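Changelog-adjacent note: as of this version, every example in the card shows the full chain rather than a window. The one below runs 224 residues end to end.
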Amino acid sequence: MADFGAMILMDNGNPFVTPQSTPFCLYGKYTFNSSANGNSQQVAQNIALNADYPVMVFIKTTNTAQPTPVMSYRNVSNIYVAGVNPYNQSFTLTAYVFAIFPQTLPKWGLAVWDAAGKLVLTNESRVLSDLQTVGAPGASGGINIDQTLNGSWAVAPAQLGQTVIVNNATQPPTVYTINAYSSCRSDGNKTRINAGGVSTGTGSPGGGTNTGVSLTAINTAAYD
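Full-length structure tokens:
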């Protein structure tokens, strides 16, 4: 227990204690529509964010017929978010950006400052909570993840593996690699989370790699 501060029970019953804990709060929700790029539909956007703010990003797309892999990474003072559907199926990408950043003092309610005097939590803060693991580390994780959840969910993007394709119709045979990333497709009622390749090709699978990681997802009902 802290020498000073506050202890708050979250909806799931877990305690949240200050000043030992500084929460990730919703910094912003961002929605982008895909556009054609050759034979694919793509989103590629930078979201401005102070380089000093720790950040976590969760992404979902609309329910395309084929997987739409998504990705995200930090680019100094921007967060890069992207998605690609190599089957030329249009989609909408929604990114939920959570960060540790100074909160805005509300007109009334609860306000908590840390020991350094930074406002870290108010009654208006939308705290990142109720994380859910999707897939199991190892052979069942990574490129082999395929799980459908009830409701609308978003996933923290990750690379899941690679598939090697061999096209014996060419001489010599053509061998190429397709990178697979997390895909999170939601129609609002159900969400399918699985692996999706960033490109397509003609040929037969000839092996590949599996990162074997599990994924982390959030129910977006609290943030929409």
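Structural remarks: The first strand starts at residue 6 and ends at 9.
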